[in-house]
Known about the structure:
By secondary structure, the chain is an alpha/beta fold. The protein has helices at residues 4-21, 26-42, 76-81, 88-99, 125-143, 153-160, 193-209, and strands at 60-61, 67-71, 108-111, 147-151, 172-175, 178-183.
Amino acid sequence: MRKIKEAIKEAADESKAVIEAASSKAKSSRVKLLEELDAKIRVCTACPLHKSRTLAVPGEGKYNAKVMIIGEAPGRNEDLTGRPFVGSSGKFLDHVLDGSGFDRTDFFITNICKCRPPSNRTPKTHEIETCTSLYLFNQISLINPGLIVLLGGVAVKRMLGLKTVEQARGRIIEHEGQKFLATYHPAVRFYREDLAEKIKEDFDILKAEMKNL
Length: 213
Ligand code: SF4
């Protein structure tokens, strides 16, 4: 597997070249490139997940967000609306953000995979590899966040190479030149209230870290 840093750097070099070549200002170029990525994601057929989706979910938020939030994959409501974290997990995420003094518009929110897996199964390795290589690393390079929040085991494994959220959560991690904060996926609140409390604790760490970004 290619190293994450190499993949993001490669995407950054490509994006930089295009940005430098553009005659308009860097801001509008960055927004335009993100919009172009969005358009590609919405019609993508690069992995089998395109067969089961209604709408792909590229992600949304500030083009220059200091923090990106990355979950696993869209669920039913996200698949129907084309927007990230708008179902019951999203409502809990909004609740946690609100409790920490944030609003979701402060961030760029997306997922490891942009299309809903059938019956909400876990995305397969080749689906994860394909989608992140084509889209997520490009989004990260364009947004250039100071910190990335990882929600759930799939995001933790792909971005940090760790097997479990427990190995990563509860602290800021520097990995390949990028800061990360890992926590559980908001969906855990439906079967583990104790873990839902830990998500809130982890967002308190984010709140404290924000002044360093
Ligand atoms: S999950 Fe990603 S790679 Fe697969 S079809 Fe959707 S956008 Fe394309």
